[in-house]
Description:
Layout: H1 5-10, H2 16-22, E1 30-36, H3 42-55, E2 59-64, H4 65-73, H5 85-105, H6 110-125, E3 131-138, H7 141-151, E4 155-161, H8 164-174, H9 180-191, H10 202-206, E5 211-214, H11 228-239, H12 248-260, E6 271-275, E7 281-286, E8 313-314, H13 316-320, E9 326-327, H14 331-337
Helix pairs in contact: 3-11, 4-5, 4-6, 6-7
Amino acid sequence: xxxxxxxxxxxxxFDEGNRLARSQLLSGDLIIGLIGYAGAGCTDVYKRLNTFLxxxxxxxxxxxxxxxxxxxxxxPTPDADKSNGKAQLDRAERLQDLRDKLRKQYHGEAxxxxxxxxxxxIRKKSSKKRRAIILDSLKHPAEVDLLRIVYERxxxxxxxxxxxxxxxxxxxxKFYGVNENSLKKFMKRDERDPESSxxxxxxxxxxQADFFLDNGVSTTEGHARKYDSDLQRFVKIMEGGSLIRPNxxxxxxxxxxxxxxxxxxxxxxxxxxxxxxxxxxISTGTNEVPSxxxxxxxxxxxxxxxxxxxxxxxxxxxxxxxxxxEKPCCHNTRKKMN
Length: 338
């Protein structure tokens, strides 16, 4: 059995590779992960990001996680003829299978462990003080979690967003001749594998991104992209050489995130913020029930509470075993169980 980086950490035994990773904060390295749904255009974003980083005097390296998987699995997965859409889709689905198998055999973060190994190899060969290593692309929250543990603040996740219809159109062009139902099935599995939590789970990991790019515009002017200015701003933020303040959208999103923390919902905390045309936040809200008599609940509230996190639910197996155990339960979950 291969011990992953997460196993090493849990056992309290850090090998040389992980010690090097921990010392990363003392260097000028940046580890940038890309995440996006199939067809969102992570590879296109990588090319532009690579250009801007090189213009800023970074030595850049790209790690294609699919290459790491093929190399480790030792399963021949040759590139398919680009004119044969069916063969290209078959190869993409084989890569999905290999990735899922790797997670199930070792851990959910196994693919990230392979990336860490490759980063170690890059460091051995390079003496540059300013390196940017781009991981293309992450597909599971456990991969993100491990990279954050190992590289801490030197790891940044970029989410590449694109509407479903545009993504489908792009995939039709890439996998030319493949019927639409097959493409939708491929997209659905990429977003969230309903059969296994160790399958593709982009939906669960996407919201963890530190920076989001809208790649929904299908047309370009020359080499320019709609998101170029945002990407250049991102590079400046990473470099830390100039004072850059949050823009109006980022300020509103921060307010929405802060509002979500007020929610006591046991299923999901959701926040919202409304801003005017000048970017001023004028209202915030969260998924929370109103307090009897008006207002909202808060810690130390004097009125009697009846929110569901205060409820107790008998677990069916505990009732059968007469153990008498109770636990808080989401109102929606209770409804589903009944």
